[in-house]
Amino acid sequence: MTTGHRVGSFWRRLDDTERTALVSMSALRRFEAGATLIRAGEQENWVAILHRGRVRTVAADGRTPIAVRFAGDIVGEQAVLDQETRPATVRAETPVQALIVEGAVFNRYLSQRTRVLRVLCAVVSERLRESDRTIVRQNDDSFTKVAEMLLRHVDEFEWTNGGRIRFDIGSQAALGESLGLSRESVVRALKRLRKDGVIATHRGVITVNDVAELRARAQR
User: Fold this and answer.
1) By three-state DSSP, how is residue 140 classified?
2) What is the chain's alpha carbon radius of gyration, rounded to the nearest angstrom?
3) Long-range contacts of 124-131 (CB under 8 A, 24+ apart)
């Protein structure tokens, strides 16, 4: 039930009993690439646990990128917890399958399982730290930003192939948008890493050939 889900995600942190209970009270929904799962300002009250695919969250202005979420991540939890309107928009970057849990049902689930509530609090706390890191790194050069992003994927996923790590970053334009960079800056950074043998690229899929060197590049 966890294969392909991001290491450290909400779903991966639950045990089998907790996951089974959550599945029993949820509905599986599918969204096409480009579909809006959640729209900023709406009053809807439910959470989604991503089972397959990738989504991007953007601010209420519809332009400012916030984060990318992957299989295993939970989205929509803030409005359920504080009973306010949706603070951000969530769009599918790829075809997505997600478990949808109504807000009242999810709150009841949390009240009956305090360990899951602590897991959710840890996820929310990590996202606040992620936001802080993003602000601090705004002045980093484009190459460093791209290298750091790739390194985060390396640390969060465990898809391996002969000791190499492979993941899908989507389009270069979307990646640039999420990092506050132009597509051209992303292309240059990836080309540099590819030329040095640190990575290989093919149709949006990155294969990291040398994790140690990538880590060194990101931390320079």
Assistant:
1) coil
2) 18
3) 124/77, 124/78, 124/81, 126/8, 127/67, 130/67, 131/66
Which residue type is seen at 38?
Answer: I
Asked which of 130-139, 157-166, 210-219 is least confident by mean pLDDT, the reply is: 157-166
Whether residue 73 contacts residue 10, with contact meaning beta carbons closer than 8 Å, is answered with yes
Q: For residue 48, report the phi and psi dihedrals to the nearest 5 degrees.
A: -130, 130
Q: Is residue 98 a contact partner of residue 31, using CB atoms and an 8 Å limit?
A: yes
Q: Using one digit for the tens of pLDDT, what is the confidence trace for 168-196?
A: 777 888 788 777 788 999 999 999 999 99
Give the C-alpha separation, 205 to 15, whole Å: 30
pTM for the predicted model, two decimal places: 0.77
